[in-house]
Specification:
1 helix; about 240 residues; two-stranded antiparallel ribbon; mainly beta; 8-stranded antiparallel barrel; about 10% helix; signal; PorT family protein
Length: about 240
């Protein structure tokens, strides 16, 4: 599955660069010649906001686990953009915060037995529990590294943009929240999840025009520590906003 996703991403990048390159070649050229050297492209997209629809992919999905359709995520990144000489490419590195919320009918709990005392999985809430919302939220401090391509400005002053990125992050907060459906709307939170993987890393892709675009992230690290939970990886798709 991972090989297919990576192959698909590389193929999409190659096709997109080819299309953009053709569009640049088709632009009318002036008959006048100039001896002025080409200037490096301006720095841009120093602040990036990613809004995503979040998913977890399992090798073997826990019994009874059912995710709601409104899983969501949000990321904020400050990046230093460095154009590569006078080309249409740039590299960027920075830092930021990302958070993912997964809504379901289950909670992450330890289910230790004689063979595995430190094993966690998603356990379905009892039918007797009448709840309004139930989620687990994960928050990371991320360090992203990006290779960026952007076309020349068109007659509207906008550019087509492509980004291939890799980010690594440390999980500094995780908790779940159960909201009981009663008159008081009682809330119960848990903060101890010893079997979740504290560090994550993965690849992402962005494609956009002007200040908006689309993004996709594929986790290459497990959600749980190896052997201490079901095999699951993070996947998200969404919208990117680059205000400046």
């Amino acid at each position: 599955m991972r090989i297919k996703v990576i192959t698909f991403t590389i193929s999409m990048l190659a096709i997109s660069v080819s299309i953009f390159g053709q569009s640049q070649n088709q632009q009318p050229t002036s008959t006048k010649t100039t001896t002025q050297p080409k200037e490096p492209m301006e720095k841009m997209d120093n602040f990036v906001v990613d809004l995503g629809y979040e998913m977890l992919m399992f090798e073997n999905k826990p019994n009874g686990l059912d995710f709601k359709p409104w899983n969501n995520g949000m990321s904020f990144y400050l990046l230093y953009d460095r154009p590569i000489m006078t080309s249409n490419f740039a590299i960027a590195i920075g830092g930021g915060i990302s958070s993912q919320s997964y809504y379901s009918n289950s909670q992450i709990r330890r289910v230790g037995n004689d063979e595995k005392e430190d094993y966690s999985t998603f356990q379905k809430l009892p039918d007797s529990v009448d709840y309004r919302n139930n989620k687990v939220a994960l928050t990371y401090l991320d360090i992203p590294l990006e290779l960026r391509y952007r076309s020349n400005e068109d007659n509207r002053g906008h550019r087509w943009k492509l980004t291939l990125g890799f980010k690594a992050g440390w999980q500094f907060d995780v908790h779940d929240k159960l909201v009981i459906d009663n008159n008081r709307k009682d809330k119960y939170k848990t903060y101890i999840f010893p079997d979740l993987h504290e560090f994550r890393y993965g690849a992402y892709f962005r494609a956009g025009y002007g200040k908006v675009g689309l993004n996709a992230y594929y986790g290459l690290s497990p959600l749980f520590n190896e052997g201490h939970g079901p095999e699951a990886t993070q996947l998200s798709i969404g919208v990117t906003i680059t205000p400046f």
